[in-house]
Amino acid sequence: xxxxxxxxxxxxxxxxxxxxxxxxxxxxxxxxxxxxxxxxxxxxxxxxxxxxxxxxxxxxxxxxxxxxxxxxxxxxxxxxxxxxxxxxxxxxxxxxxxxxxxxxxxxxxxxxxxxxxxxxxxxxxxxxxxxxxxxxxxxxxxxxxxxxxxxxxxxxxxxxxxxxxxxxxxxxxxxxxxxxxxxxxxxxxxxxxxxxxxxxxxxxxxxxxxxxxxxxxxxxxxxxxxxxxxxxxxxxxxxxxxxxxxxxxxxxxxxxxxxxxxxxxxxxxxxxxxxxxxxxxxxxxxxxxxxxxxxx
Length: 296
Hints:
The protein is an alpha/beta fold and about 300 residues long. It folds into 3 domains: about 1-90, Winged helix-like DNA-binding domain superfamily/Winged helix DNA-binding domain (Arc Repressor Mutant, subunit A, Orthogonal Bundle); about 95-165 and about 265-295, Periplasmic binding protein-like II (D-Maltodextrin-Binding Protein, domain 2), CATH 3.40.190; about 170-265, D-Maltodextrin-Binding Protein, domain 2 (3-Layer(aba) Sandwich). Helix content is about 45%, strand content about 25%. The strands form 2 sheets. Strands 3, 4, 5, 6, 7, 8, 9, 10 and 11 form a 9-stranded mixed β-sheet that branches. The mean pLDDT is about 90.
């Protein structure tokens, strides 16, 4: 508590120091704050006595900051800037500060980044922190406050967390122009399953139905790599429709007209204590973005 008592003692002298430090001229600072030069001098003398350091040197008619004064001014600028943002946010119902979100692919590309963009449009003082940890790590980090919210496909029950089902994502089987099936109008499902696929590693977000056997010819850790590999024409890929339709790389992708029943539920988990402010605002944006995915 001693550091708080010290702050209380110096609090009223800090504006005077800032004004004089920025202008390096007592009369100008006096006019800026509406205080007499003697009142400013007295405030700075009291601050120097409290700190045990000289904050200014007199150079001719001008005041010049000492090294200790330079250090204090830098800290005061940063602190007052943050305080000003906080006051602005409090007076305008704006949220501010970091929002720590975990969203692995394909969720990030499909709808999470757009939801974060919309959150920042409404609340410019919010700073999203987006990561892509494994689901078990992400859920544990939400629980111990290292993350505020995680987008998952299979959350583990936890009494300390709130779980929201946002909806589901639809997937399709895609191929590139050079693939033999690209020109096939309606290839039978059995014929499709005879070809090799590019796929993510096991235990990642990927809704391949267990009842359908397939050969995996290449494993990639990033969905953007999967798009490129699929577009090259050598392998098929099971891709989220919204991500595949947005592909703008080399070559074209075609969604084959086969139904393998590939969908994936999408959940959000957060702490009960964080069910307010930017977390709830982001939850609304995520819900809206996922809801309009079929129209994209």
